[in-house]
Amino acid sequence: MSLLNIISLALVVALTRAGPILNNPSRVLRRDAPAPSAYPLDSACGNEWQYLNFNTTVATDRVHLQTLHDVICGGEMRAISSYGQISAQNVNAPYKRYFPESDDEDDYPTNVKDVLGLIAGASSTDGAIGTVVGTFVVDNLGKLLQLRFPISSVFDSLWQSPLTPSIDFAANVPGASDCTVEGTLAYTLEDQVDDLEKIHFCDLSWTRGEASDVDCASLDPFPSTKMDSFSRIALHEMMHYSSIGPNTPVGETIGDCKNADSEPANDPPRVHGLLDPNQDDNPAVTEINADSYAWMSLDAWMSQNCIAGSDTNNWASFFTQNPPPYNE
């Protein structure tokens, strides 16, 4: 029998014995979970997020690494979070599409401004983005299905190859949604295997481009998904971190709220619908809904970027309408 046949036979036997483990992801073990690292393709910029489970020998991973690096170090994340912060401070049109004005109990504009200020940071001299972003971890491959073979270390190396099957680390968190859920772009969770709070971007998210590449002439007179960008998705996920909401006057983790029809309040019509008195009329939940921050910030930046003329404070002159009702 050839060496290749011997290896193949042993592998089949090992996989057969390991069948119950494969059928129960919660019991799959990961040998020596890797630690997050700085940007592996070149020098990292100030406060750049950390990376985990990227294979720099795989072309797709290198492209994704570059996208993640550029959204921070190229300045787009600071730009959209800063314009969102300014919009909240000025309580102008983009802000008022997604958040309420102050009342006797809550200073909503200040709360929103403080949340986005953690992401934007104080100034470019402190780094390319806020200090807190440097503690964020992006996990690329999720939870590795690595089996432990007592026969030979040869088999371990087979399962550490780029062809190794993997599942999202959300499988470690009971009840959590992962990339198998239709329409999911990304998620942020604490992995119960390595105890790290991490962001994972699903395949669909990588199809989004840069906000600066959006053709202003192609947009509707109201904010819509036509202006979506990878930076908007990334900002949404940043909002979920436990070091954001609880460390501001919001006082709690920013999650994913639902509209009155029990569907997630994602995308401009539904985010606006939370606030709209003719729809959900539920303004209090806007400050704990991640997509409200993400779309308001992108709306503010896009309005500023697309507006004609030099009157950059008149952001309402670009989007002349609010998003249509989500149930139309």
Which descriptors apply to this entry?
two-stranded parallel sheet, mainly alpha, 328 residues, globular, two-stranded antiparallel sheet, disordered N terminus, 34% helix
Molecular structure report:
It is a single chain. With 328 residues, the chain is mainly alpha-helical. The chain is built from ten helices and six strands, in the order ααβααααββαβββααα. Helix 4 (76-90) packs antiparallel against helix 6 (108-120), helix 4 (76-90) packs across helix 10 (290-306) and helix 8 (230-239) packs antiparallel against helix 10 (290-306).
What is the count of DSSP helices, taking H or I runs of 4+ residues? 10
| C-alpha end-to-end distance | 67 Å
Provide the succession of SSEs: HHEHHHHEEHEEEHHH
Q: What structural class should be given to the helix and strand makeup?
A: mainly alpha
The gross shape turns out to be: globular
**What Rg, in angstroms, do the CA atoms define?**
22 Å
Which sequence of strands runs across the widest sheet? 1-2
Count of DSSP strands? 6
Please describe the biggest sheet, giving its number of strands, its sense, and whether it closes into a barrel: 2 strands, parallel
The average pLDDT score comes to: 83
Show unreliable segments: 2-31, 143-165
Proportion in helices: 25-40%
What proportion of the residues form beta strands (DSSP E)? Answer: 5-15%
